[in-house]
């Protein structure tokens, strides 16, 4: 195993906050990584290599060891349930997973629940002893109750703006979401020193990080 640390970074809303945190910790992640089209960015002076991935794929890259570590939201971790170590709560990209519906929603038998998170939604309603039909969608989940595809949705709420603009209300919070640092189990043993050092550097700036 080479001694370059391969880091899977999620494209999109988490990236900028993660980049800021890495910078604060003195780790040289390029801040404009997302602006180009390159997917693999070596930073040889730090013996690191950044891999830009779709957020939902980060735990897969880490589980299979093509990335040693990765940054990923707790929402994706819960949904994907991959065999990885969760090392650190980075406290960034804070939001929540919630059950959402129209304000005049009424309980029906076997309601339809639309979501990007079918495993999370199924587990939540199973644990509550409620039978539901889960419908997997890939985005714009808020459409589902508005056009009659589903009775409720399970989705991420950050500012609440999407709900407000579409006349929907949050009914129940399922769990809080922040981004986590995860590691491949073998890498964690083989590259323990460099992974632990990076983890410590990030942890040291968490109390002062206003991201
Ligand atoms: C997410 C989520 C909500 C929205 C919540 O969607 O699915 O729709 O953000 O954010 P808010 O509370 O700040 O409005 P995303 O932007 O990832 O796009 P998507 O609809 O394609 O999933």
From TrEMBL:
ATP phosphoribosyltransferase catalytic domain sequence ranges: 54-203
CDD domains in UniProt: PBP2_HisGs
Class of enzymatic activity (EC top level): transferase
A GO MF label: ATP binding
Quaternary organization: Heteromultimer composed of HisG and HisZ subunits.
Family: Belongs to the ATP phosphoribosyltransferase family. Short subfamily.
Biological role: Catalyzes the condensation of ATP and 5-phosphoribose 1-diphosphate to form N'-(5'-phosphoribosyl)-ATP (PR-ATP). Has a crucial role in the pathway because the rate of histidine biosynthesis seems to be controlled primarily by regulation of HisG enzymatic activity.
Comment, domains: Lacks the C-terminal regulatory region which is replaced by HisZ.
Protein name: ATP phosphoribosyltransferase
Species of origin: Paenibacillus ferrarius
Phylogenetic placement of the source organism: Bacteria, Bacillati, Bacillota, Bacilli, Bacillales
């Amino acid at each position: 195993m080479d001694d370059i640390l391969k880091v899977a970074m999620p494209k999109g809303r988490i990236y900028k906050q993660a980049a800021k945190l890495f910078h604060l910790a003195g780790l040289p992640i390029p801040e404009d990584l997302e602006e180009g089209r390159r997917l693999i960015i070596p930073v040889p002076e730090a013996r690191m290599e950044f891999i830009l991935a779709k957020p939902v794929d980060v735990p897969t890259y880490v589980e299979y060891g093509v990335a040693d570590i990765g940054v990923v939201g707790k929402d994706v971790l819960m949904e994907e349930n991959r065999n990885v170590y969760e090392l650190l709560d980075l406290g960034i990209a804070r939001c929540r997973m919630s059950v959402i519906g129209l304000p005049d929603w009424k309980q029906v038998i076997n309601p339809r629940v639309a979501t990007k998170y079918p495993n999370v939604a199924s587990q939540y309603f199973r644990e509550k002893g409620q039978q539901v039909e889960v419908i997997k969608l890939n985005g714009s989940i808020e459409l589902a109750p508005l056009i009659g595809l589903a009775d409720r949705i399970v989705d991420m709420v950050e500012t609440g703006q999407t709900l407000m603009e579409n006349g929907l209300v949050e009914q129940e919070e399922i769990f809080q979401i922040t981004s986590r640092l995860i590691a491949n189990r073998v890498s964690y043993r083989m590259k323990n020193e460099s992974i632990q050092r990076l983890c410590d550097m990030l942890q040291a700036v968490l109390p002062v990080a206003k991201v």
